[in-house]
Design brief:
Elements (H helix, E strand, L loop, with lengths): L20 E15 L5 E8 L4 E7 L16 E11 L3 E11 L11 H32 L1
Antiparallel strand pairs: 1-2, 1-4, 2-3, 4-5
Length: 144
């Protein structure tokens, strides 16, 4: 990444171009574990911002491969990345560094309310689904 003491460029994930190294913020949308034809494990991570969803492939020998188990889908992360355009798969990111986004990241332009929306969206959906299911159960008991 950048030399020690040299600030990195902070940009939107959607503004990243081929070969550029930068700091971006994005939500981990999905982690997909798989195995290659040669029986080597990998993790395909999908990160997104407001405009784009980009893939980061973590092969079995990648330095963050083991750490990926602790990453939570729906959580916002501060990503140190290098953009790379693959002719077959399109724009992808190479992870150079990753950590959960914090309130201190507001200095870099990360919106804390965006983080809270991501983290609260899933529980709200589950709560509303549970209310609907409980109401349906109650209605079916009354009808029996």
């Amino acid at each position: 990444m950048a030399a020690i003491g040299t600030p990195s460029v902070v940009i939107r994930l959607s503004d990243l171009v081929d070969g550029q190294e930068a700091v971006c913020y994005g939500a981990l949308v999905k982690k997909i574990r798989g195995t290659t034809a040669r029986n080597q494990p990998f993790v395909r991570c999908l990160f997104r911002d407001k405009r784009v969803q980009l893939e980061a492939m973590l092969w079995h020998d990648h330095r963050f491969f083991a750490d990926a188990d602790s990453w939570t889908e729906g959580t916002a992360y501060r990503l140190e990345v290098r953009g790379k355009h693959d002719l077959r798969y399109g724009m992808q990111i190479e992870l150079l560094g990753i950590r959960p986004a914090t309130e201190a990241d507001a200095v870099d332009g990360f919106l804390s309310r965006w983080k809270s929306k991501i983290q609260t969206a899933a529980p709200e959906f589950c709560r509303s689904a549970a209310i609907c299911c409980n109401a349906a159960r109650s209605a079916s008991k009354l009808g029996s």
